[in-house]
Amino acid sequence: MREFVFTVEYEKGADEAMDLFIEHPDLHSKTMAVHATADSMWRLDRVTGPADVLESFDTIIEKVARGNAVVGMCGAPVVEWNYEVLSSTPNGRIIYSCREEGDGVQSIPYVAAKHIGDGLLMQAERRGNQYQWRLLIADDDTVGEIYEEVQDGLSDGLSLSVQRISEPECWLEEGFGADGLPPEQQAALEAAVEFGYYETPRRNSVQEISDRIDVPGSTLQYRLTRAEAWLAKQFVSGTLGTEVEDRVDPTELELSA
């Protein structure tokens, strides 16, 4: 088995739901379970973020359920989409949803199920403008087939990049995830990394970063301190995920040993 990791990046305005993630970097969605056939998809997602942003997210998924919005991994129109909020807290939701495919609709789980068939396993994560997918694949030939069909199915404003085709490290390591870290602390760490706070020499100070992201300096410092303490307790030895910058040339889709 190999792990196939790729990311769909969204331009602002291409998808209403993803626009909310773009506008609010501290909004995060991680798939707890997803199952798909050639006809439909069932999934369970944990969405975390500030209370007011989650209220906006609730409004968007309600619009999708009424069938008057465009959503989907490839920007495809919804044929039939039903959902239920299984758990709701001020800063989190666990959402069950079921989506049926139609003629011409090319959602990523639909494409994966068509090429992989029985035994399909996948994970997904959304943050910012990135929707990242991880698939377990046994047949080497299906990698290129899935890539090409997803690429062809992308709507305007979406782009595809491949990060890794390798041993299934993320599925085997016990490790830890960022789920135990509050979303505002996740966002603080991401901003610190993005603006070179941890580089040598340091590119930006906490105050300079706080000015860029419009968060008070004292608040940002507090969030970074708490996040760093949490990371230390988890004995972090690796990264939190696959970075989109680590791209693979799609014309050379060969599985590494």
Automatic annotation (TrEMBL):
* Any one Pfam family match given in the protein's UniProt record, by short name: HTH_10
Return the InterPro entries for the record: HTH_bacterioopsin, HVO_2928_N
Record keywords, A-Z: Transcription, Transcription regulation
Query: For the HVO-2928 N-terminal domain, which residue ranges apply?
Result: 3-171
Residue ranges of domain HTH bat-type in the record? 183-231
Question: What is the recorded name of this protein?
Answer: Transcriptional regulator
